[in-house]
Specification:
Elements (H helix, E strand, L loop, with lengths): L1 E12 L2 H6 L4 H6 L11 E7 L2 E7 L8 H8 L2 E9 L14 E3 L2 E6 L5 H8 L5 H4 L7 H15 L5 H19 L8 E5 L4 E5 L5 E5 L23 E5 L9 E2 L4 E5 L5 E5 L7 H7 L1
Antiparallel strand pairs: 1-4, 1-10, 2-3, 2-4, 5-6, 6-7, 7-8, 8-12, 9-10, 9-11, 12-13
Helix pairs in contact: 4-7, 6-7
Length: 283
Amino acid sequence: MCRLYAMRANEPTRVECSLVHAQNALMQQSQGDAEGLQHSHGWGVADYSDTLPMIEKQTWAAWHGEHFRKRAARIYARTVVAHVRQATVGAIAIENTHPFAHGRWIFAHNGSIQKFAEVRDRMIEHIDPDLRNDIRGATDSEHIFYFLLTMHLRHPQRPLMETVGRGLRRIIQWSEAVNPLEPAGLNIVLTDGEQLVGSRYNRTLWHLVRNEVTVCGICGKKHVQHDIGEDYRAIEIASEPISGENWKAFANGVVYSIDKDYRFEIKPIPESSALQEDWKATA
């Protein structure tokens, strides 16, 4: 179990209220979520400066000290990913703390794969050897990240949303084969700063779409320096509703995409029949 947050907007946007000050900000969720669980085994926040992500991660709880608050206050970006961890697979260590990064790509995961060591034995042979050498930690999350990146490298012409859906279906198959009684939890976020793709699978997930600039009900200010005549669009994703606004729940078993033009799309995770060509090519 963990809690995650992501935001894509067509103008630089402040997210301090969503991360720190809102009624159910991510920092509040780390101290006690809707089920009363703490997520105190580390935190990480990533945004983009030009084309490369800027990431800060720590192994203590988000509400301890001022580090998380100060990091959140500095963010003014178009793409943001944040995560608070409750360790399930892998020790409490910086190399196991989300978000994970590779070049322009960042990744975060809420959920776990039971009996991951056995699933890893099936997954690892499908991860590109060069990417395999970049794995630093022991989490199921980091392995999922590099598996999905491998699929993207092998099928660069395919839409990222489709690649992620196919990859997740394969992981679900491996998990079910190893442990049919305990389904995997696969809420993920993957982005290169230009496009953002994610999923909801067996963990709660919500979204909020903003089509205009408003005064924030928490801080009493606008979160963007909006140019007159420009359309504003932002999508926030979170494990739980952050505020009292019109957050909507994702259906279970879906992938979603926010593309370069800020179009928001949601589709079911593909069925098994869609996967055959991928695994013939990598057998």
